[in-house]
Design a protein that fits this description.
Number of strands: 13
Radius of gyration: 19 Å
Number of helices: 11
CATH superfamily of one domain: NAD(P)-binding Rossmann-like Domain
Structural class: alpha/beta
Distance between the termini: 31 Å
CATH topology of one domain: Rossmann fold
Shape: globular
Low-confidence stretches: none
Strand order of the largest sheet: 3-2-1-4-5-6-11
Mean pLDDT: 95
Largest sheet: 7 strands, parallel
């Protein structure tokens, strides 16, 4: 099958690109390179022995997208492209509505005009907001508490309306929990622009010496050790969920939402300890005040993923830390070749 991957030069997109090609599909990547890297796509080419076409452009540019669809004629889309930092979304919400919501609208319009009927969307557990119960299942009320989460929910709603308008259309929104890790080869991994927004890349930067300490935000939560607890999953497991979703779309009408998580939480201190084992030295940490809006604990109910996709997380916390360290130690400054 021919697959168009928007945002395929980014962290999750590049790992999914590997799995899509391994599954025997053809892929073309569209990426603005705001968060993605040309080097990531080049390294996926080496990993898979495939020539991969990277089209650099913005999904809000309708004529650009139309030219890609005309040339490549994709049968399905995996849609990652978008802005992704919660804090930035609070500071600059209009950019998030423009890129994430308007960009997705343009993509769906082009898909509609080009008779491409299947899409897998990169959504987020942030759509749930404050937990009314745990673990979150897909029936949990959705009430995102920041613009990033609201844009993800708006795109989900748009996908529901888009797919309901034509029985040939089908869409799956994967609600990720906390993707971490890297490809075990160490060739591709997470390379955030500037200061990391997430725990694992920050730990990795401290471990490799590019940052001096890890700040732990809050040590008095009602968790096993007082630090925040999250559902972390390996990015390779997550990537495989997208391939299984492509298969599921063939027998589906309308829009479905599916949690992708391990079903259990890991605290910040537990993550640090596991990473210290992986890198064989201590991580300098300092506990500071809680951040506004952080939740004590959240994790997924992933039963629907098993039932609908035949998917379950297979890789452990040890695997996540080992593969992140392999990536970071081999690439202390991230990708060498960068396009800004």
């Amino acid at each position: 099958m021919k697959i168009l991957i928007t945002g395929g030069a980014g962290y999750i997109g590049s790992h999914t690109l590997v799995e899509v090609i391994k599954a025997g599909h053809q892929a073309v990547v569209v990426d603005s390179l705001v968060n993605g890297h040309t080097e990531a796509v080049e390294r996926v080419s080496k990993l898979t022995g495939s020539d991969i076409h990277l089209a650099v452009g913005d999904i809000r540019d309708k004529s650009f997208l139309e030219s890609i669809f005309t040339e490549f004629a994709p049968e399905a889309v995996i849609h990652f492209a978008g802005l992704k930092a919660v804090g930035e979304s609070v500071e600059n919400p209009m950019a998030y509505y423009d890129v994430n919501v308007n960009g997705s609208r343009v993509l769906l319009e082009v898909m509609q005009s080009q008779n491409c009927h299947r899409i897998v969307f990169s959504s987020s557990a942030t759509v749930y907001g404050e937990p009314q119960y745990l673990p979150y299942d897909e029936n949990h009320p959705v009430a995102p508490i920041n613009p990033y989460g609201r844009t993800k929910l708006m795109v989900e709603q748009m996908l529901g309306d888009w797919s309901a308008a034509d029985p040939e259309r089908s869409a799956i929104s994967l609600r990720y929990f906390n993707p971490v890790g890297a490809h075990p080869s160490g060739l591709i991994g997470e390379d955030p622009r500037g200061r990391p927004n997430n725990l694992m890349p920050f730990i990795a930067q401290v471990a490799v010496g590019t940052s001096s300490e890890l700040q732990i935000f809050g040590g008095d939560y009602d968790t096993r050790d007082g630090t925040g607890e999250r559902d972390y999953l390996h990015v390779v497991d997550l990537a495989k969920a997208h391939v299984l979703s492509l298969n599921a779309l063939a027998d589906q009408e309308g829009h479905d939402v599916i949690n992708i998580g391990t079903g259990h939480g890991v605290t910040v201190k537990e993550m640090v300890k596991a990473f210290e084992i992986a890198c064989a030295h201590s991580i300098n940490t300092r506990t500071v005040a809680r951040r506004a809006g952080d939740l004590p604990c959240f994790f997924a109910n992933s039963e629907r993923a098993q039932a609908r996709l035949g998917w379950a997380a297979k890789l452990s916390l040890t695997d996540m830390c080992r593969d992140t360290w392999t990536w970071q130690s081999q690439n202390p400054s991230g990708y060498k070749a960068r396009e800004y």
